[in-house]
Structure to design on (301 residues):
């Protein structure tokens, strides 16, 4: 019983102090700026060295070279670059605003950090024989960074958010080495199960107050299906006595979503939780347009 009481008191104490700690500085806090910058630099250098000497060490090296992969996977991997850059910039922006830097300067810092950090991986790829420096990757990194930082700089608000959802496509079993052989790897590698979303509230741009809550959004999605190789084209799989044929196609979606960060709350902990949840699309009834047909999904994630 004493242990439970002590744990409850410790939890309550931590919650109270976390609320205080999470409160953004109302003026420039040099200690926070130094701490955030030093931590960011350490993680940047550390993760780069770790990838170079652990991950990239297992692959054949080559001279610096370029590689055009803009046509692969019907640009789903480019959507991933865009999405990652946007949210990475948002994380950096939040940390520098928490340190007391005004939203315009924090947006500029976030833009430089996001684009520079992600470009580091392109330079590592440039010396890998199997890949190379990809201008299309760099371009989508830039677009994703700009999508967040332009809104942050001009309005200190995100009118348009970019989200992600994933579900089991059933195709990874045919090429597990490429599309993943467990839940985690399939989520990241099986583009057939992924959807990228642009989520927004159209009433943000109207002059009149709307009765629709600000946290209810429309969401436009993009995905692909039946693609088992990066270059596309029909892929044939022998399954026992049968031959299965897969011809890739694009999918477009219209759905609803929730902007958690637009839900009013004074709790810093809830704001942090909502910030974390806002990277994922909430399941809703959805219309899909693909293969010249319109489909309705009662609940689509």
């Amino acid at each position: 019983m004493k242990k439970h009481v002590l744990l409850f008191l410790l939890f309550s104490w931590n919650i109270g102090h976390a609320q205080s700690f999470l409160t953004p500085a109302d003026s420039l806090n040099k200690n926070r700026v130094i701490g955030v910058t030093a931590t960011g630099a350490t993680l940047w250098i550390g993760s780069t060295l770790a990838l170079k000497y652990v991950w990239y060490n297992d692959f054949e090296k080559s001279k610096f070279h370029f590689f055009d992969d803009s046509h692969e996977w019907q640009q789903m991997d480019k959507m991933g670059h865009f999405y990652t850059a946007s949210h990475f910039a948002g994380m950096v922006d939040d940390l520098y605003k928490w340190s007391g830097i005004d939203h315009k300067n924090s947006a500029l810092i976030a833009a430089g950090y996001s684009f520079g950090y992600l470009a580091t991986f392109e330079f590592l790829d440039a010396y890998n024989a199997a890949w190379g420096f990809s201008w299309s990757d760099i371009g989508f990194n830039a677009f994703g960074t700009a999508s967040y930082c332009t809104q942050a700089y001009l309005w200190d608000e995100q009118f348009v958010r970019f989200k992600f959802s994933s579900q089991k496509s059933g195709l990874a079993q045919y090429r597990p080495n490429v599309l993943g052989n467990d839940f985690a790897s399939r989520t990241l590698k099986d583009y057939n199960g992924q959807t990228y979303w642009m989520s927004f509230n159209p009433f943000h741009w109207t002059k009149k107050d709307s009765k629709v809550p600000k946290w209810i959004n429309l969401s436009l999605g993009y995905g692909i299906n039946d693609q088992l190789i990066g270059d596309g084209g029909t892929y044939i799989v022998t399954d026992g006595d049968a031959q299965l044929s897969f011809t890739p196609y694009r999918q477009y979606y219209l759905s609803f979503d929730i902007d958690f960060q637009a839900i009013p709350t004074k709790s810093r902990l809830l704001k942090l939780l909502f910030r974390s949840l806002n990277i994922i699309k909430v399941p809703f009834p959805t219309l899909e347009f693909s293969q010249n047909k319109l489909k309705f999904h009662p609940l689509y994630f």
About this structure: Confidence is low (pLDDT under 50) at residues 1-19. The longest helix spans residues 30-55.
